[in-house]
Structures are given as structure tokens and as C-alpha cells.
């Protein structure tokens, strides 16, 4: 085991976007109306949401145009409600756009958004913290990494809906997981355990890996690698792992699909971990 290092994902955004455009160009008209694991969103709504995020990125990080919130944001759940409202407004307005227009706009905006993120100095403070990972501040590498997880998991929602192959190759999946497990210290913040207690999370396959959540004197830390003598283990296939962490699988269903070892009570909070902004009560 070793301390988890920064994950630099900026070079992955442009090729990931190429995969998205290739996917969207190949969809039939009916595919755009298919339901997804993203709640009430159809394929077209997920694509529109990706476009919204990329347009916001250009406005904020390239053009220094940041519209202030129109209501006070006093904490995590206030922020979630604000973002949910913005997302709903955009997806409603996007109903007037055809699939071809959505795809053409994404093909135009995506590369510019990827280049804008790549130009951010990785270790300077980010304008926005990654709230699901905890803490009030993040460096740019983590903010860009969060955007990678957004681009990846929303594309996966589309792929899942239309039966397209998943992005489970190591170049895509390992960075996704390495960023996603940084939610675990926040997830376990209220869990008491003896110092040195270790939960190993392993994702199978060539693109997977293992991480150990270790209890320190008063907090939990994520380390890279497994442990020879963990107190609990969770082994997941890649499909279960991403759907669990990205709010696309009920915690009970995710737990039933996992292989658990050791202290199952210690393992239980993992299935409420969400590497995405959802209301606190929804992540349990």
C-alpha cells in the first residue's frame, strides 16, 4: 500500500469525447428516446446535459464569465438543489434541439472544453471544490478529474441504454476508479473504528485495481493497493462498481452483486458512497 497520488486526467478528455461523438453519430432515431439509468432522463437528455457542462466550462474557465447563484447556498444539499434546478432547466430547453443539432454542437464545443481544462495548472487551487469528495478546496487536477468522471459516466449511461460496449479498457476505467474512491473518507467520516482498520475495495478485470480505506487517529484515508490482512473486503465487477458509485444501482442490489469478506458491517457504508452530487439522503 502507498498514499494515493493525484490522478491527471486532462489528456483523456479529448479522446473520450471522440468516443462520445462516434457513439452519438451511430444512434438510430429511436435510440435517442431510450430511458437511461439516470432517473427520468432519456439518452437525448444525457447528451444535452453533457453539452451544458461543456458550455459552462468554456464560459467560466476560458471567458471568466461566472453567473452568481440566484439563491443562498449554505451547504452541500443547498448546492445539490441548485445544480439539479440548473440541470432541469437546461434539459427542458434542449427538447427544442434535434439529435443532429445536439451532436453537432457537442462536436464543436467538446474539443474546446477539453483544451480549456488541459490548460489549467494542475496544482493551483480550483475555482470550485469537488464537494462529493469532501473539503472546501480542491486543486485543478481534481477538478479536471471530476470532469473526466462526469464525461465518462454520462457516456456510459448512454452506452448502457443503447446496448453499446462499455468503456472498461484500462486507459478509461482505472483513472475513473482512482478518482471515484476519493469519496470514501467522506462516506466513512462518521464510522468509528480502531486506528489501522482497513477496508479493501477491489474492482476486477484488466481495467480494475485495489484500494484500501484505512482508519487513522481520527479520519479515514485512501491508499493505493490491497492489504495482506484487511478487516473487510469488497470485490466488484466493473459494471457494478461504476453503477454503484454513480447512483445507477440501488445499494441493496449493489451489495447483492458484490463479494464480501470479513467484517460486513464495516463494508456496508461503501454501498452508499456516491462520486457524484446527489442529496445526502439519497446516498444511503
Automatic annotation (TrEMBL):
It holds the Pfam family MDMPI_N. It comes from the Bacteria. Residues 14-158 form the Mycothiol-dependent maleylpyruvate isomerase metal-binding domain. GO terms for molecular function: metal ion binding. Gene3D superfamilies: dinb family like domain (1.20.120.450). SUPFAM superfamilies: DinB/YfiT-like putative metalloenzymes. NCBIfam families: maleylpyruvate isomerase family mycothiol-dependent enzyme (TIGR03083). This is Mycothiol-dependent maleylpyruvate isomerase metal-binding domain-containing protein.
Amino acid at each position: 500500500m502507498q498514499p494515493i497520488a493525484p490522478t491527471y486526467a486532462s489528456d483523456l478528455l479529448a479522446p473520450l469525447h471522440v468516443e462520445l461523438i462516434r457513439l452519438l453519430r451511430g444512434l438510430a432515431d429511436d435510440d435517442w428516446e431510450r430511458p437511461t439509468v439516470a432517473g427520468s432522463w432519456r439518452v437525448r437528455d444525457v447528451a444535452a446535459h453533457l453539452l451544458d457542462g461543456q458550455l459552462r466550462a468554456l464560459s467560466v474557465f476560458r471567458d471568466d464569465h461566472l453567473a452568481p447563484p440566484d439563491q443562498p447556498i449554505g451547504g452541500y444539499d443547498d448546492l445539490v438543489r441548485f445544480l439539479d434546478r440548473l440541470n432541469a432547466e437546461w434539459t427542458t430547453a434542449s427538447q427544442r434541439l434535434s439529435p443532429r443539432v445536439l451532436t453537432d454542437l457537442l462536436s464543436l464545443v467538446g474539443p474546446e472544453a477539453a483544451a480549456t481544462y488541459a490548460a489549467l495548472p494542475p496544482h493551483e487551487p480550483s475555482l470550485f471544490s469537488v464537494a462529493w469528495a469532501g473539503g472546501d478546496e480542491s486543486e485543478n487536477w481534481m477538478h479536471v478529474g471530476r470532469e473526466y468522471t462526469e464525461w465518462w459516466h454520462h457516456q456510459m449511461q448512454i452506452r448502457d441504454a443503447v446496448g453499446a460496449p462499455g468503456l472498461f479498457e484500462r486507459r478509461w476505467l482505472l483513472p475513473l476508479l482512482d478518482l471515484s474512491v476519493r469519496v470514501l473518507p467522506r462516506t466513512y467520516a462518521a464510522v468509528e473504528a480502531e486506528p489501522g482498520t482497513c477496508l479493501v475495495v477491489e474492482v476486477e478485470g484488466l481495467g480494475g485495481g485495489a484500494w484500501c480505506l484505512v482508519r487513522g487517529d481520527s479520519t479515514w484515508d485512501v491508499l493505493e493497493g490491497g492489504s495482506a490482512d484487511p478487516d473487510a473486503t469488497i470485490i466488484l465487477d466493473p459494471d457494478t462498481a461504476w453503477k454503484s458509485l454513480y447512483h445507477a444501482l440501488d445499494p441493496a442490489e449493489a451489495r447483492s452483486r458484490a463479494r464480501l469478506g470479513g467484517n460486513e458491517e464495516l463494508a456496508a457504508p461503501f454501498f452508499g458512497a456516491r462520486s457524484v452530487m446527489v442529496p445526502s439522503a439519497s446516498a444511503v
